[in-house]
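Researcher: Batch entry, complex prediction.
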Amino acid sequence: MITVQEIIDGFSQAIQLIVSLNPELLEVTALSLFISLSATTIATLIAIPFGGLIHFRKFAGKRVLITIIQTLYSVPTVIIGLFVYLLISRSGPLGFFGLLFTPVGMIIGQSILILPIMIGLTITALSGVDKNIRDTLISLGGTEFQSIAQIVREARFAILGAVILGFGRAISEVGVAMMIGGNIRGETRVLTTSIALETGMGNFGLSIALGIVLLAIALVVVLIMNLITSGALSDSDRVRGGPRA
Amino acid sequence: MIRISGLSRRFGNRDVVQGIDLEIRSGEIFSLIGPSGSGKTTLLRLINLLDRPTRGTITFDGLHTDGTEHDRRAIRRRMAMVFQKPGVLNTTVEQNIAFGLEFRGLKKDLIHERVTSALEMVGLSGLPKRRATTLSGGEMQRVAIARAIVTGPEVLLLDEPTANLDPVSTEIIENLIVWINRERKTTVVIATHDMGQGQRLASRIGVMMEGRLVQAGEMYDIFYHPVNRAIASFVGIDPVRGGIVESNENNLATIAIKSTRVEAVTSLLKGQRVALCIRPEEVTLSLPDTCLPASSARNCLAGTITRLLPYGPFTRVHVDCGIPVTALLTRRSCEELALAPLMRVNATIKATAVHVIPDPVPEENLSEVKQERSG
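Model: Structure tokens for the complex:
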């Protein structure tokens, strides 16, 4: 039984750990940020061109593809964990790289996890740019590449929103981190896996401290996101230039 | 400059533009007029090579335009189009105007120089660093025009450039269009649903209805000699139907219509069913005793005023002369004559001002057909 006193003690211990900049807490936080930021960067580099391609090209099965991507928004993290595990485990097709239980493996897993939502939201962001803008750019003599580059630029705020959402999903997931990383202390232990472990071991103080840090990161993410999307919305309203008479 | 022949564009199972033959002459302002949804935008997009026709061809300065995207871009870069919605991008005014030049790979200092002079031309010199999306509608449209003309196009296409703008912005933009045409010798094609705008700007007009170019020619021809009833209504005349040519001697015809007879100049022969178009500004009203001397070439119809409608500085006076006749008078002359509903007046119309169009289906039959259908 956990008593109220234990919870209160946990909180005060947590605040001590944060205020004293506990080395283990810092290490876990740093690794978490490193892995999730790397995964987000990789996913962004893939999602923008890929999303652009899907949005601007006409092809058979486009609708179906978009629906599949949207379904994968909510794919359980453990399923991605399982998939990547099978791929990179010693006997798997990519086993010879020895990526299982390494940060690189986790980065790959998290990238795959957040790709669908980032591609999907990139497509949504690009659809948000008035079709009139594309006609205008082509009419001004732009090549396909020149025009698409400008449209991506026009959708920059909404795309940034997609990136931040992807990061949020990456840093808060447990499945991939646990199954691919293995929660090895000092190597692959991140905020979420650490909370799971410490809670299981009854170290509520550390768990709560890690939880507060995770929430703080989430808060920063939400704040940035609100700032950007509110700016983007009013911007795109102005860009559209009013309704057609 | 641009020769269009047999041009059609089908979307789904609807021909949005069909069978268009048209020549845009170098240096002219050609106005495409027609109600919303008549295919004006689609035609302009085809001319700008943003879309490919289902059938038919367009040649630009003698060049075929049905080549590869690369070839079409080379031709497209000799034109510019301004859309109904200004489509400014969320960046500075300066950057917005520079796009076309950047796409063509011009040097930075040359771009700056040309953007500056384009801004001056459209009267936005003070705003190069402003975020374009924060401008007013009229200013945005001027940015769109500056962006189009900065590349020095030979042909400028404008799609309802003033549709959403206030009268002051409209005037600025109309003056700008005329200036570009005169000073830069740019050929201009402007689509508008505003008859007045077509009249003010263009030397020649094409009327589009339901995807077809139903009449093209000098402005005078279209305003005074519409080829069919739909155009007549569109150019502001309500044709009076149910007439029949009673006699025709040397093109001076007597037309029996409703309970009266009207003299008109036409080549249509005796027995032809017709409708009459009389422009309100061609009708003179006078008091009953002071009818102008009726000559053979002048109609003097007695009637009763049914309605007075204010129309800017003018008044439209509806008179029932057996046939409905509308006269356009200045408000002042209306007051001088003390016109009022139910007053008796004489309407004088020159025979040359009565435009006769063939109207093969008699009115009675039309209503019978309708009844049969509904019944």
